[in-house]
């Protein structure tokens, strides 16, 4: 337990930095064996056997017909957008990682920013309805922090207005909604397998779908549009996953039950440690669903908590706890959207509120309950010494 705060002159609670997004790593020997086999085969990329196995196992795990693996989720989103032939405007939440709107803007499709539902932080169906124009071609929900969008309401709006639906499921591998695994909703869904994600393949992503024709098109587009030697039938790009990344992805898949158990243990330790701290609430996962518990997301209510979110983050950083303010500021406040849509914030009250209050805390294999108890004690200590912390933060270091 800490007795004081680094910001007030004590030694930091941790010698080494505790990062959010520290990668989870499966069985090293199994990974290295896969890499050795790969080197012996001399097949390093371009639809190799490890990528094929990875795709098959992802599709089985999620319960969909097709998984098309890609080099990362941003490219996967871009290729999905092309394959779905979207244009004009697409409605996206402003509370997401900037890769979501960028995938549209990069293709000169306007991401129109919708607000979020305060409980789940996912796109608000009522906000979607208000933003539909004759130029709208699709709705892109984000299952942010692994919690599912209201897929039923979105489906009803899409059917009524003739819109396509796709989901950015970057955070949501291994999660479910209504007992159905995420991956099977909308026309397609996009997972990220980035190093920081629940299932990690160093870099990587995938589009999953039950649509045979869409899957064929995605495969062609990820490989320059080649439909066989010397025959290009679509505008394509290089979106391929490498074999070494697939080896890592497969090794992560082998470890998945253990990864959920560690994440859940940590999540419960935070829930216990933060209980009763004024103005602090932990984003809840629905115990009736499958969850990956990959993110520990805390909201600081400044009307109750003695310190603001930003003040708390400064306290934690001084202690070598590199908590993050994801996703602040909302995408609508980042370029080019800030310049292109200067009034967007007027329609995004919940996004503005949540983006100003959220802290994401370290979890995963490198964090244990003892570490979490210390982090939670830092919250209490910071609040009990709020006046001194505030005074210290007012004086430039
Ligand atoms: N959609 C959503 C909703 C997303 O959140 C993301 C990505 C995407 C789409 C796009 O997926 P990808 O194209 O990346 O597949 C990080 C990740 O790079 C990004 O993948 C992720 N979301 C985002 C939420 O977090 P940054 O800019 O915050 O990264 P950075 O460099 O600050 O690292 C994050 C933390 O992870 C740091 O505390 C350091 C730690 N870290 C990172 C890596 C790579 C490690 O400890 N070891 C590592 O190897 O974006």
Give me some keywords for this one:
three-stranded antiparallel β-sheet; seven-stranded mixed β-sheet; binds ligand T4K; 397 residues; globular; 14 strands; 14 helices; alpha/beta
Description:
With 397 residues, the protein is α/β, with parallel strands linked by helices. 38% of the residues lie in helices and 14% in strands. The chain has 14 helices and 14 strands. A seven-stranded mixed sheet has the order 2-10-9-6-5-3-4, sandwiched between helices. A three-stranded antiparallel sheet has the order 11-12-14. A two-stranded parallel ribbon has the order 1-13. Helix 2 (49-62) packs parallel to helix 8 (243-254), helix 3 (73-83) crosses helix 4 (99-105) and helix 3 packs across helix 7. The longest helix has 19 residues, at 256-274. The protein is globular, with a radius of gyration of 22 Å. Ligand T4K binds next to helix 3 and helix 4.
SSE layout:
Elements lengths: L17 E2 L8 H14 L7 H14 L3 E5 L2 H11 L5 E5 L5 H7 L4 E5 L10 H7 L4 E7 L8 H11 L2 E5 L7 E2 L2 E2 L6 E5 L12 E5 L2 H11 L20 H12 L1 H19 L5 E3 L13 E5 L8 H10 L2 E2 L14 H4 L8 H7 L2 E4 L7 H16 L1 H9 L3
Parallel strand pairs: 1-13, 3-4, 3-5, 5-6, 6-9
Antiparallel strand pairs: 2-10, 7-8, 9-10, 11-12, 12-14
Bound molecules: ligand T4K.
């Amino acid at each position: 337990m800490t007795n004081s705060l680094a910001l007030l002159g004590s030694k930091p609670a941790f010698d080494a930095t505790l990062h959010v997004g520290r990668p989870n790593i499966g069985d090293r020997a199994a990974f290295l064996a896969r890499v050795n086999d790969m080197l012996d085969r001399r097949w390093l990329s371009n639809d190799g056997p490890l990528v094929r196995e990875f795709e098959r196992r992802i599709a089985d795990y999620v319960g969909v017909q097709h998984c098309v693996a890609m080099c990362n989720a941003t490219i996967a989103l871009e290729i999905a957008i092309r394959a779905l032939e979207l244009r004009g405007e697409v409605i996206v939440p402003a509370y997401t990682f900037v890769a979501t709107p960028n995938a549209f803007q990069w293709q000169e499709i306007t991401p129109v920013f919708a607000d979020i539902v305060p409980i789940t932080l996912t796109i608000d169906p009522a906000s979607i309805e208000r933003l539909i124009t004759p130029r709208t071609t699709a709705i892109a929900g984000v299952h942010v922090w692994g919690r599912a969008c209201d897929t039923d309401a979105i489906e009803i709006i899409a059917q009524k207005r003739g819109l396509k639906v796709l989901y950015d499921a970057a955070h949501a591998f291994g999660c479910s909604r209504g007992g159905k695994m995420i991956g099977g909703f909308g026309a397609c869904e996009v997972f990220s397998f980035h190093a920081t994600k629940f299932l990690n393949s160093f870099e990587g992503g995938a589009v999953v779908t039950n649509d045979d024709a869409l899957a064929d098109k995605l495969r062609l587009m990820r490989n320059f549009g080649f439909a066989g030697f010397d025959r290009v039938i679509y505008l394509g790009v290089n979106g391929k996953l490498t074999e070494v990344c697939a080896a890592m992805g497969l090794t992560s898949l082998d470890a998945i039950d253990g990864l959920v158990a560690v994440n859940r243990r940590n999540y419960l330790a935070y829930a216990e440690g933060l209980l009763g701290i004024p103005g602090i609430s932990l984003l809840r996962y629905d115990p009736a669903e499958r969850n990956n518990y990959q993110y520990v997301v805390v909201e600081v209510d400044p009307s109750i908590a003695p310190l603001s979110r930003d003040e708390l983050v400064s306290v934690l950083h001084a202690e070598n706890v590199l908590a993050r303010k994801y996703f602040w500021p909302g995408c609508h406040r980042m370029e080019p959207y800030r310049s292109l849509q200067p009034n967007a914030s007027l329609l995004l009250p919940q996004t503005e509120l949540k983006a100003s209050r959220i802290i994401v805390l370290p979890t995963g294999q490198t964090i244990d309950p003892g570490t979490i108890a210390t982090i939670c004690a830092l919250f209490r200590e910071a609040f009990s010494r709020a006046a001194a912390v505030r005074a210290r933060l007012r004086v430039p270091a």
